[in-house]
């Protein structure tokens, strides 16, 4: 375990309020805030994970969702290994917004970027507004990983990041 860690850059994208900061907070610190302040620009959190003989350092960038930050977000996803596109399962407009984010990423990122879609706020499934089959069909059409998550109750969060790591580095 004396090798330098494998570095992976992961960026979260999606409209404001879908839960990007909350997903990162849940994954890195295992906590949740109901009154999260909106991210301004972008914020960073690192996490190191030890596998049997590989150490992986995740460099996670959480970007602000507002329209005015789209061009700033480009600086973060341009050289990222993976992008997590987040929408809120209770808001159809956040799903449409996510598709706009994907189209931008596709134009500006490294062509091998791994894309994952997180349908967040799964704990509010009773108020679901985006038909899951639409999300699954869309994810398949862009060859993206699709996961349902809840930053509030942790569902799917760990699995989402694990799947990204293993898809990027199947040898681990
Ligand atoms: P961001 O703008 O995409 O970073 O969204 P935030 O992480 O700031 O979350 C926006 C709001 O949604 C906050 O009030 C969070 O507490 C709430 N939130 C985030 N994730 C979840 C979730 O999985 N379930 C529920 N019920 N609320 C969530």
Automatic annotation (TrEMBL):
PROSITE patterns: RAB, RAS, RHO. GO terms for molecular function: GTP binding; GTPase activity. The keyword Nucleotide-binding applies. It comes from Stentor coeruleus. It comes from the Eukaryota. Pfam families: Ras. Keywords: Nucleotide-binding. The keyword Nucleotide-binding applies. This is Uncharacterized protein. InterPro entries: P-loop_NTPase, Small_GTP-bd, Small_GTPase.
């Amino acid at each position: 375990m004396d090798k330098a860690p494998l570095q992976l850059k992961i960026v979260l994208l999606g409209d404001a309020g879908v839960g990007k900061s909350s997903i990162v907070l849940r994954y890195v610190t295992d906590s949740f805030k109901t009154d999260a302040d909106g991210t301004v620009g972008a914020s960073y959190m690192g996490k190191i994970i030890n596998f049997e003989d590989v150490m992986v350092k995740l460099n996670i960038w959480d970007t602000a969702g507002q329209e005015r930050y789209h061009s700033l977000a480009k600086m973060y996803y341009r050289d990222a290994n993976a992008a997590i596109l987040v929408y809120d399962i209770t808001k159809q407009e956040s799903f449409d917004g996510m598709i706009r984010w994907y189209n931008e990423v596709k134009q500006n990122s490294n062509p091998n970027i791994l894309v994952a879609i997180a349908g967040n706020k799964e704990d509010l499934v009773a108020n679901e507004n985006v038909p899951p089959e639409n999300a699954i069909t869309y994810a398949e059409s862009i060859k993206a990983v699709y996961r349902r998550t809840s930053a509030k109750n942790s569902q799917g969060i760990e699995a989402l990041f694990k799947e990204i790591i293993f898809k990027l580095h199947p040898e681990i």
